[in-house]
């Protein structure tokens, strides 16, 4: 093989949701263009890439080695690569301006084991698989604190910061010696955000909020990949059960309620008049 054909290589550009841009190449030297350095030997290699016309979803699988300089196990556990944008280029390393884009999409599921990781790549048509439109239901479909809800979670009584006193069940249960200044069970269906420590940036959904003796316990639905430890500072945000009574009573936000509380149930179809 000679000439430009013998100088072919591949390069990856990964853009995370936090704005960090990482470059990788299978060439034996670093490459650079458009202000991005594509590092050699750091690791991404692709299997077969399936490309199609029409609206079918293009997909691929990439694998690489975990390293402190590129993709770390901690960053994966904290979800920093979730939904990251990815571009795969084929190019002549001696003349990168003539590069050809082979694939553009996002990171899907990322798995890691034995110092390596494997990531599912999803094409741009993947977004068309997301259900759209509005659902007519009794409960509110809005997420507490989002634009359609309108509740300000930074307002007094909506969230509280606290230091983790102890951790149990592999990080699924957090205990606080100084009980958060919120009524019991107020945090159920709420959100936990880790503000510092090794697990900084981790966000998890709260399942239970209970008092256990001198401890206030918060149980998560799942143990996060990077769990906070005793001494870490977290932010605890209140939850909502999506009912009109809670929206009006606990938040004074009935005007923004997005559900249909008077919608008849399925049993309405088989009801019949009775003498009573």
UniProtKB/TrEMBL annotation:
Alphabetized Pfam families for the sequence: Phage_BR0599, Phage_phiJL001_Gp84_N
InterPro entries recorded: Phage_phiJL001_Gp84, Phage_phiJL001_Gp84_C
Residue stretches making up the Bacteriophage phiJL001 Gp84 C-terminal domain: 188-267
Descriptive protein name: Putative phage protein (TIGR02218 family)
